[in-house]
Amino acid sequence: MQNLIIVGPMGAGKSTIGRLLAKELRLAFKDSDKEIEQRTGANIPWIFDVEGEQGFRDREQCVLAELCLEQGQVVATGGGAILRPENRQAMRTGGRVIYLHTSVEQQIARTARDRNRPLLRTANPGQVLRDLLEIRDPLYREIADIIIETDERPPRMVVQEILARLDDLPHR
Ligand SMILES: Nc1ncnc2c1ncn2[C@@H]1O[C@H](COP(=O)(O)OP(=O)(O)O)[C@@H](O)[C@H]1O
Ligand SMILES: O=C(O)C1=C[C@@H](OP(=O)(O)O)[C@@H](O)[C@H](O)C1
Ligand SMILES: [Mg+2]
């Protein structure tokens, strides 16, 4: 069975929904950010501080390449995983790609209390999220097999929607 790979911006719910979806389907769950942290032995803010964003992206590319080659697992990616063409190619060929779509307002609300996202350590995280989404939304769409709206929907409902939409997809 192919992987189910979840993409979308910070606060879309990739980590939360990925875990629930894997449980529902009795598949293994991998969160690329957690894999990066385990392999580095340090958390994401530390990696950004010490190695810079490009250092983090290099680690992310390595981890994604490996995860996409495995089979039958749910993979939650980080919001910037779609930036490098090599990653987009790995995700396209590694499984079905699910884009969790979210309004910037919801992203702001869902990320407000968490200190673990270095890109949002700024005076105006809302503007950063808006600017990032403008660049990244076309890239999420470029590789998505399905796009799921997550605003006004609790995680369990998002999972049910994903399952229904996966059933509708033609086999490839
Ligand atoms: N559909 C949803 N409705 C309400 N809150 C959500 C939803 N999905 C995720 N959340 C909450 O938003 C926060 C960020 O979710 P997370 O899974 O870490 O997002 P991501 O991995 O996409 O950055 C968490 O506190 C989570 O409980
Ligand atoms: O959007 C991004 O560039 C990032 C998103 C984060 O993951 P989440 O989308 O799970 O928050 C994490 O990979 C890192 O802080 C960078
Ligand atoms: Mg996450």
Automatic annotation (TrEMBL):
Entry note: cofactor: Binds 1 Mg(2+) ion per subunit.
Domain of life: Bacteria
Chain residues that bind substrate: 33, 57, 79, 136
Cofactor: Mg(2+)
Gene Ontology molecular-function annotations: shikimate kinase activity
EC number: 2.7.1.71
Binding site for ATP: 11-16, 117, 153
Pathway as given in its UniProt record: Metabolic intermediate biosynthesis; chorismate biosynthesis; chorismate from D-erythrose 4-phosphate and phosphoenolpyruvate: step 5/7
Entry's localization field: Cytoplasm
Keyword line: Amino-acid biosynthesis, Aromatic amino acid biosynthesis, ATP-binding, Cytoplasm, Kinase, Magnesium, Metal-binding, Nucleotide-binding, Transferase
Chief place of localization: cytoplasm
Record bears the keyword Ion transport: no
Catalytic function, reaction form: shikimate + ATP = 3-phosphoshikimate + ADP + H(+)
Positions of Mg(2+) binding: 15
InterPro entries linked: P-loop_NTPase, Shikimate/glucono_kinase, Shikimate_kinase/TSH1, Shikimate_kinase_CS
Signal peptide: none
Subunit structure: Monomer.
Listed PANTHER family: SHIKIMATE KINASE, SHIKIMATE KINASE 1, CHLOROPLASTIC
Family per record: Belongs to the shikimate kinase family.
Role of this protein: Catalyzes the specific phosphorylation of the 3-hydroxyl group of shikimic acid using ATP as a cosubstrate.
Protein name: Shikimate kinase
Organism encoding this protein: Serpens gallinarum
